[in-house]
Amino acid sequence: MNNPVWIIDDDRSIRWVFEKALAREGIAHRTFAAAQEALDRLSEETPAVVVSDIRMPGLSGIEFMRELRARLATAPVIVMTAYSDLESAVAAFQGGAFEYLPKPFDVDHAVALVRRALEETHRPPGIERPAEAAPEILGQAPAMQEVFRAIGRLAQSQATVLITGESGTGKELVARALHRHSPRAGKAFIAINTAAIPKDLLESELFGHERGAFTGAQTMRRGRFEQAEGGTLFLDEIGDMPAELQTRLLRVLSDGHFYRVGGHTPLAANVRVIAATHQDLEARVKQRLFRDDLYHRLNVIRLRLPALRERREDIPMLARHFLAKSARDLGVEGKRLSDAALQFLAACDWPGNVRQLENVCHWVTVMAPGQVVDVADLPPEARGEGAGGEAAPGTGDWRRALEREVAARLGRGESGIADALTREFEAILIARALQHTGGRRIEAAALLGIGRNTLTRKVQDLKIDTPNQD
């Protein structure tokens, strides 16, 4: 190919990496240290593909892409950035980017993207909209980068989206982001939790009712579909929707019309529907608890949100963000988590996901005694303890508890951790086994799979209090 690939980055090492990788692949290329240099070159040369950083001194990567689109609409642009956030991803895709490459990146993956872009003959420019920040959606983990990419690609689409994920993963935040970055952003975003409204009221909530439709209906009321006219309707916990309401929803999605309760005039529904659930809808379909045809209507594009334990590397960043947010909301001085506390939190399972982490940070802001928060200052439930300080049942298996203990000790800068924990582990094993056998060492040793002499030596060495011995 005669036209070269352009690499634009103020970081010399990034340019060097691309130069070596592309030269090895036999791909013609040219590098620029600034976006303006590349723009100036456009009068002399046309790039086949552009790989550009977003944040650079002078002209930014997004601004460069806008200028490039004005002059050359067909060249695919791969944007890269060390600031892996939703704003960057959405701005990139809405500016017409071919792909989004967060740093640090795998060189082979980057070259594969360039090759894909070279094969791209034409991609229409995206509809340009100023990107709004969404600081509440944070994440640098690969799983979250996939979510950001999906939001960027889906923002301009009218397609129905089904968001899945455990409770507390941020499904409504993602739905709001899809709305906020869409052509419908100027209209209403209406959210309704279908599991939180009594079955008898849900139909009226969704579709409204006419005056006199039922006892107590003194006036006509517009439902959520009408309130969301021209905008987005977010149906949370869709898996819990009653069967009869599933039928009515399917009818709206199928023909775009609905009736108010007690009404006889069809009303057009110009809304984008985004649904969410923490349940396994396929399983509910098999159990005949959810309509198969409605499932397929909703499942046009699925967006799965990762559980917090699948993106542990994001926990310290999220914790700092929520501590700062709680301090702002309460008008108090912000707290800071010690390294040990951060490592401890990163090792937790977080069954309540991001919402649970935010609640813990809010608790810490209010309740922790000092400005620097250590493991002992975290709420008891976060430490896996009940109100009385004893280990709470159902708080995770012993391996996870061990991980948290190791993380806490590493964070405190302790040494000799393996020996100390091994001694504690053996002491607990032997003490419990002896308690179980009433002090009979031969039986306890057999249960543990060690010799009696070994057990006796460890009892003395570890200073284990034992029941009456045999």
Low-confidence stretches: 121-135, 386-396
CATH superfamily of the largest domain: P-loop containing nucleotide triphosphate hydrolases
Instruction: Give the integer mean of the pLDDT values.
Output: 82
Corresponding CATH architecture of the largest domain:
3-Layer(aba) Sandwich
Q: Please, how many domains?
A: 4
- Note the main sheet: 5 strands, parallel
Structural class, from helix and strand content?
A: alpha/beta
Number of strands: 14
CATH class of the largest domain: Alpha Beta
- Strand-residue proportion: 5-15%
- The largest sheet has its strands arranged as 2-1-3-4-5
The rough form would be described as globular
The number of helical segments is 19
Fraction of helical residues: 40-55%
Distance between the termini: 86 Å
> Per CATH, what is the topology of the largest domain?
Rossmann fold
Task: Return Rg in Å.
Answer: 29 Å
What are the SSEs and their pairings?
Layout: E1 5-8, H1 12-24, E2 29-32, H2 35-41, E3 49-53, H3 61-71, E4 77-81, H4 86-94, E5 99-102, H5 107-119, H6 142-154, E6 161-164, H7 171-180, E7 189-193, H8 199-207, H9 224-227, E8 232-236, H10 243-255, E9 257-258, E10 267-268, E11 272-277, H11 281-286, H12 292-298, E12 301-304, H13 315-330, E13 336-337, H14 339-347, H15 353-367, E14 372-373, H16 398-411, H17 417-436, H18 441-448, H19 452-461
Parallel strand pairs: 1-2, 1-3, 3-4, 4-5, 6-11, 6-12, 7-8, 8-11, 13-14
Antiparallel strand pairs: 9-10
Helix pairs in contact: 4-6, 13-15, 14-16, 17-18, 18-19
